[in-house]
Amino acid sequence: MALPSPLDADAPTWPEIRQGVRDLCARLPGSYWRDKDRERAYPKEFVDALTEAGYLACLIPEAYGGSGLPLSAAAAILEEVHKSGGNGAACHAQMYTMGTLLRHGSEDQRRAYLPGIARGELRLQAFGVSEPDAGSDTLSIKTTAVRDGDDYVIQGQKIWTSRAEHSDLMLLLARTTPKDRVEKRSRGLSVFLIDLRQHIGRGVEIQPIRTMINHATTQVFLDDLRVPVSALVGEPDRGFAYILDGMNAERVLIAAECIGDGRWFVDQARRYASDRTVFDSPIGAKQGVQFPIARAYAQVEAADLMVQQAAQRFERGQPCGKTANMAKLLASEAAWQAGDTCLQTFGGYGFAEDYDVERKFRETRLYQVAPVSTNLILAYLGEHVLGMPRST
Amino acid sequence: MKILCPVKRVLDPYVKVRVKQDNSDVDLANAKMAMNPFCEIAVEQAIRLKEQGHASEVVLVAVGPQQSQETLRTGLAMGADRGILVKAEPAPEPLGVAKILKAICDKESPDLVFAGKQAVDGDNNQTGQMLSALLGWAQGTFVSKVEVHDDHFLVTREIDGGLEQLKIGRPAVLTADLRLCEPRYASLPNIMKAKKKPIDNYTPEDLGVEVGHRLTLQKVEEPPARQAGIKVDSVGELVDKLHDEAKVI
Question: Hey, which CATH number is domain A241-385, 1.20.1600.10, 3.30.365.10, 3.20.20.30, 1.20.140.10?
Answer without folding.
Answer: 1.20.140.10
